[in-house]
Amino acid sequence: MQRVLTRALRLTRPWRPPAARSCASAAAAARDPEIQVRALEGPDQGVTEILMNRPHARNALGNVFVSELLEALARLRDDRQVRVLLFRSGVKGVFCAGADLKEREQMSEAEVGVFVQRLRGLMNEIAAFPAPTIAAMDGYALGGGLELALACDLRVAASSAVMGLIETTRGLLPGAGGTQRLPRCLGVALAKELIFTGRRLSGTQAQALGLVNHAVAQNEEGNAAYHRARELAQEILPQAPIAVRLGKVAIDRGMEVDIASGMAIEGMCYAQNIPTQDRLEGMAAFREKRPPRFVGE
Questions:
Q1: Per residue in 218-245, pLDDT tens?
Q2: Contacts for 10-19 with beta carbons within 8 Å, 24 or more apart?
Q3: Tens digit of pLDDT for each residue in 19-70?
Q4: pLDDT-derived band of residue 1, with 50, 70 and 90 as boundaries?
Q5: Which class for 143: exposed (0-12), middle (13-18), buried (19 or more C-beta within 10 A)?
Q6: Predicted structure pTM score
Q7: Catalytic annotation, residues
Q8: What are phi and psi of 115, to 5 degrees?
Q9: Predicted pLDDT at 2
């Protein structure tokens, strides 16, 4: 267990943009990336955005989309400058429409199994990301799109957004974590009801159930959830980043075990935080009656 917790906070290295693939075709090189990464500046410094931008397919989870997202996560995972990772859409009215069924239709049964396993791995990578993650849901989040949001720590939705695990209406069942993360979020009985019926919820309904943390009225630009997600990120940024990351580990690991084991996990996380400069800074700031200046060390 100690080894797992230590790995979660291993030393980091700055993120660099991925190098161009030498084997990519001219057509692939010419197209816009489906996943774009941007580090924000000014009061948002410390927030990194992952922009999903596949407009012709409503951000459906296709092969290229999944590959680029996995690559971005791998590059960002070890960047200590990333204090909050925010997922948003560049396609108005859509967060992520779920599986690319047109692409899936061309796969053999064996290929479908391999791809869904890869998709499940993607959601696990999002869930295991060391820094807090926020999904800004300004539109449709269906099937795998909602599974992506469920893999994030926090969810903000426009009140008019539409979301649901609708796989049973397509002859499928959730295969990228939905059957596991939805009941952990809402409880078993309610999760079963939503999955069995394939019901769609508005952002307002989702907030009432506890599926999203915040629901906000949509604006003319169609990005109200994104702006609320940035406000939420700004509340996280001033806090001690190592303590925040360890708190995430303690919660996530603790929820998977009995409470006695969870308390042991909390104790190990707390012990890792004791020698940090940020803990001493927090005590000094309290004593001197000033705001703390945490540096993540």
A1: 999 999 999 999 999 999 999 999 999 9
A2: 10/78, 11/78, 12/78, 12/79, 12/80, 13/78, 13/79, 14/79, 14/81, 15/75, 15/76, 15/78, 15/79, 15/81, 15/82, 16/75, 17/75, 18/71, 18/72, 18/75
A3: 444 444 444 445 789 999 999 999 999 999 999 999 999 999 999 999 999 9
A4: low
A5: buried
A6: 0.89
A7: 99, 144, 147, 167
A8: -65, -40
A9: 52
The tokens for 196 are 């069995």
